[in-house]
Every structure is written in C-alpha cells, then in structure tokens.
Amino acid sequence: MAEPFPPFSTPPVPTTPQIAPSPGVPPLMAVLWPPPAVAEFHPPLRPNFGHIGKPIFLRANHFQVKIPNCCLYHYDITITPDKCPRKVNREIIEVLVNTHKEFFGQQKPVFDGRKNLYSKKALPIGRERIEVNISLPGGDSRDRSFTVSITIHPKDT
C-alpha cells in the first residue's frame, strides 16, 4: 500500500514527456495523454485543529436515542384508501389506538405516518392479519371511513 501524501502537499508531477495524442485533442489534454492509471485515493491527514477563526454553534438534524434493553415489535400498516397525507394517517392510527384497547392496552405505539408501526409489547394478533374500520369526522358532516390492516413485519416472525 502506498504511503499517503504529506498534509497539504500535491502529488509529484511526472517529468517524463508524454506522447502527443492524435489531431483534434486540445493542447491542455496533450499534457495528460494517455490518462494516468487510477490510483487509490488517500485524502491528506488533518495536521491539527485550527486556532484561527471564530467558533460557531452548529445545529444538526439528528439526535441521540437511548433505548433500554427490550424487544421492539415491527408491524406493517396498510391504510385504505391510500394517498392520504401523513397527518391524516397519524390521526387514523391515533383513533385506532384509543378505541381498540383490546389490541394496544395502555401502550402508545410509534407510527411513521406511512407504513411502519413499532410497539414495545407484542400485539395479541399473532401472525394473523387483522383489519379494522376507522371513521374520522369529515368536513361536510359526513364521516370518512378507512380500513386499517395490521400484520407483523416478515422479519419479526
């Protein structure tokens, strides 16, 4: 394995003359013709931490999650009719959890708004698919009806 280049240095320039390519190749390309063999990339090592400049506070879009040692159960959710926004899907699952205590008890599962539901305790459905009808109040005094299908994720069986 070749040694990486020293920090902030450039690779050595070959001193042997290159053969000029065929007519029609720009003069700048003639210097690099034929193309050099592809070498393994080694970025320069960081020499140290700088002292010039002004420190800033950096905010990142992630956070650390600490999960106690336990099992998480992953379920596939299918809501029909589909094509609903995530906000509506979350409302549907919230109504499902609050009205069907025989499945969820006191636990509050986590739903991603599309297809995945996670719970700390196994739902009492086994490997069976269950379908539940849920109604949400509509804007024009008609309820909107949805069918929610829950199955355990295949990797959790």
Automatic annotation (TrEMBL):
Sequence segments annotated as region (Disordered): 1-20
SUPFAM superfamilies named in the record: PAZ domain
Pro residues biased stretches: 1-15
Domain Protein argonaute N-terminal: 54-151
PANTHER family (UniProt xref): EUKARYOTIC TRANSLATION INITIATION FACTOR 2C
Stated name of the protein: Protein argonaute-1
Lineage: Eukaryota, Metazoa, Porifera, Demospongiae, Heteroscleromorpha
